Amino acid sequence: MGRRPQPYIKNRLLDACADYALAHGLPDRLEPLATATGTSARMLIYHFGTRDALLRAVLGHARQRQLDAFGDLLRVRPDEPYTVTLERAWTSITGLDGRPYLQMFSQLRESAVQRLWPDFRRTATTDWLGPLEDGLRSIGRPELATLVLAVIRGLLMDLDATADTTRTDRAFHDFLAAVEHLPRDDDRLPLPGTRQRQQDQHRHGVGHVALCRLPTA
Description:
Blueprint: H1 7-24, H2 31-37, H3 41-48, H4 51-73, H5 82-93, H6 99-106, H7 110-116, H8 120-126, H9 129-137, H10 145-162, H11 165-179, H12 194-212
Helix pairs in contact: 1-2, 1-4, 1-6, 5-11, 9-10, 10-11
Region (Disordered): 186-208
Protein name: TetR family transcriptional regulator
């Protein structure tokens, strides 16, 4: 009877593979990971089953590391306004600690993502909504989570394309200053066309009720 894979060895290999992927990107082949972990491609297959199973595990492990690290940065701190918390999180996400994650995930080819984790793009977005809603609730604005996330993602794309840290840092700082003055739900004007649609729906509803009440022969 052959030996069973040892969980502690598998976990050690997974950590080392994730370290490599964060430093150099997720490879298509096993050989770079085997070299980085000091083992062979055959042993990686022994522990993980298939190449895609290993790459999927590496992608998920790196993603979990990012969530653990930056999810903590987004938590409410009783001694500071949440906009200050967000600014510090932005500095870390775009700094030396966060750069490996941004580079690895931005360089993933769509074909690889669809093969390894078809729902990755969606998950990588919605994972952050909960922590942001919880944090923004501390200032009474949980509904701004989608807006804040959209701005962060947009500025990260800008930073990836231009490497202009000064400009993107300033833009995020200005955005946070504006957040404190955004109107609340009760104070906002309806979106263009909303009032007309509501009136049309009301008329349609009245007409529908009237038609239903017409006597039948």
